[in-house]
Amino acid sequence: MPTYQYACTECGHAFDQFQSFSDASLTECPECGGKLRKVFSAAGVVFKGSGFYRTDSRSGSSSSTPSSASSSSSSSTTSSTPAPAASGSSD
After folding, report:
1. Alpha helix stretches (DSSP H) within the chain
2. Which residue has the higher pLDDT, 21 or 64?
3. Which of 13, 42, 47, 64 could be disulfide-bonded to 52 (CB atoms 3.0-4.6 Å)?
4. Residue 74 pLDDT
5. Closest Cα to residue 27, out of 6, 50, 52?
6. Torsion angle defined by CA atoms of residues 83, 89, 90 and 91, in that order, rounded to the nearest 10 degrees
7. Which CATH class is domain 3-39?
8. Confidence class of residue 45 from pLDDT cuts 50, 70 and 90?
9. Nearest CA to 26 among 59, 3, 53, 55?
10. What is the rounded CA–CA span in Å between residue 64 and residue 61?
């Protein structure tokens, strides 16, 4: 069940409440009987450690991305060199 944060608009009392998605929002402050509002904050998910960013799995700086692409194209050129030789030998 999610935890919702509420704050009273009159006395400032703040508290957390476990509620189901289908439950109605609370409207009355348990301290003074004033009007409540939901408090929204940033998402509760924090990604820590390595492996969450595109550059984490790559070696070197972010400028290595284009060079790795060019090195892969050069390796594809190397691998394409035997292919024409194989097709040429089949003639």
Report:
1. 64-80, 82-89
2. 21
3. 47
4. 46
5. 6
6. 120
7. mainly beta
8. confident
9. 3
10. 6
